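Check my protein:
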Amino acid sequence: MTRGRRFRAILLAAALLFSGTWAAAEEPEAETVLADLYTACKTKAADAVQKVEEEIGQIREPVLLETAVRWKELFIDSGYKLYMNGRDKPEDLEIPDPSKHAFVVLGYCLRNGEMEPELQGRCKAAGIVAKVYPDAIVLCSGGATGSNNPNRNTEARLMRDYMIRKCGIAGDRILLDRDSLTTAENARNSLRILSEMGIETVTVVTSAYHQRWGSMLFYAAAAWYRKQGIPMEIIGNWCYNTTPAAGYDGINSSFAMTQLRVLLLTGEGALLSEPEEAAETPAEAGAAEEERVVFAGGI
């Protein structure tokens, strides 16, 4: 049984275990759940973690349930494994059917319209696993970023060109998302493209310090597709092993939660809101811009 299937089985078992609690307790609001997840992540206090565990037992909405369980796995518990290029073997990813699989490579802000070494590192890492799984496709995700980019080069196009020239990956295996400017947009746009192609499983490829943040958003977006009856599972991660500037890990969960709220509640087409209710707040728009500024700084 693959990791993804094992997790679904565990999730179902947890749902059955707490079915008696569901009957007696009112389902918590999404805003409350997200706030409590963030508090438990930041404080690691026993009562905060217990509250999250209780809320997981009360959630019936599948996207919110997946979000809560995965946040706890990625940001609260300590057992989540990062698969590192150069340390781990691509075969350890246990991809069940490569012909229905995609490696999604997340972009990194351009400097003067060109790729930074970190983005090249992500592409090299993706190239390694792509060669081991030749039937899988690669999707490069990232728009036209950076303050000095007169030709409006996109991360995705430059990534594809680099992977063809430097990594030996055939161009007809590489798809592009040239619109995304944030990690939340990476998740939304990439999975839309892949779902239309019948792709059912995904490995997220990015820098090690960015992996939990990125994977969290992809898990939430994939859960939305399953809610619609469309197969979509995030079954793994693959990391370019690099160290960010001092202190960046400290704001990783802050960015993750801010963009998770946009993806689920307030952004255009929010996954837990009706379309007419979805509107990005000024604060969240500022946070999205802050992400671009942070990456533009070369972190």
